[in-house]
Each structure stands twice: as C-alpha cells, then as structure tokens.
Amino acid sequence: MAEVSAEARIEAPAEKVWAQLTDFTAYGEWNATHTSFPNGGPDTLETGATFVENMKLMGFPAEVTWTVEELETTRVLAIRGKGPMGVNVGTRYALAADGAATTVRIDGEFTGAAVSLMAGKLKDSATAALNESLRKLAGLVT
Q1: Which residues does the chain have with pLDDT short of 70?
Q2: How many angstroms separate the first and last alpha carbons of the chain?
Q3: Which Pfam family, any one, appears in the UniProt record (predicted)?
C-alpha cells in the first residue's frame, strides 16, 4: 500500500472552496492528475454515486471507476475507485473552516499487487500532484 497526503490553508470560505472542489466541469483546472470524465462527473453527488475518470500519474494514463463513499457538504468528500492492473485507489478531501479561510487536506491511498512494485515513486509522484492540485485550487478561489 502507498499512502499520501497534503494540506493547505486557502484564503477563502469553505463554501467557496467546496463549490470549486465539486464542480466537475472545471475539475481539470485544478486537479493535477485529471485528464477527463468520459461520461461526465457524477449525475448527482451523493453517497453511492459512481463515475469514471481518466487520470495520469507518473506519466501513465489510467481509467478509474469511482464510488462516493462519504459525503458531508462543505466538509468531506471521500471516493474509492478501481483502476487498471488490480489497483484500488482512495481519495478523501476534508475541509475545515478557519475564520475566513479553509484548511483543505487530501489523503490518498493506493493498494494492489502492482503498487508494491513502485510504492516509493508512486508516493513521490502522488504527493507532488496533491500539492500542485491544492496550489491550483487556491488560485481559483482566492
């Protein structure tokens, strides 16, 4: 298993950050690993909703079928997905209001046989992508 995380304080209210985070039509403007939603984002953002995302990590394209596991508007969005080569992926976005700002934490995990072969490089690449994503997200909402 490979686990990664990143956190940033964004100078915008949680509602504004959440609106950008869950605007699937603009996902590629801030998410560093996202390339497309072949069928669009989830029809309705709710627990149990599914959607397919094309991503690129470590230079490799991957299609992931996601399911929304946890949803608490303006606070938590957790998704779990199945990717190629038996890799399972989990991503959890947690927002905490901090006055007029918001602390955003992203936690990710990768499991599966293929992950053990490249765990170190995967952690480095995914952590860099999370930090870049938070920087871009902050740029869109501040």
Answers
A1: none
A2: 35
A3: Polyketide_cyc2
Q: How far apart are CA 124 and CA 110, in angstroms?
A: 13
| pLDDT tens track for 64-86 | 999 999 999 999 999 999 998 89
Q: Are 137 and 12 in contact (CB under 8 A)?
A: no
Residues 22 and 16 sit within 8 Å (Cβ to Cβ): no
Q: Which of 55, 56, 43, 141 is nearest to 101 (CA)?
A: 141
Per-position b or e across 52-87, b if 16+ CB within 10 A of its CB: bbebebeeeebebebebbebeebeebbbbbebeeeb
> Residue 7: exposed, middle, or buried by beta-carbon count in 10 A (0-12, 13-18, 19+)?
middle
In the chain, the domains with their CATH numbers are 2-141 (3.30.530.20)
pTM over 0.90: yes
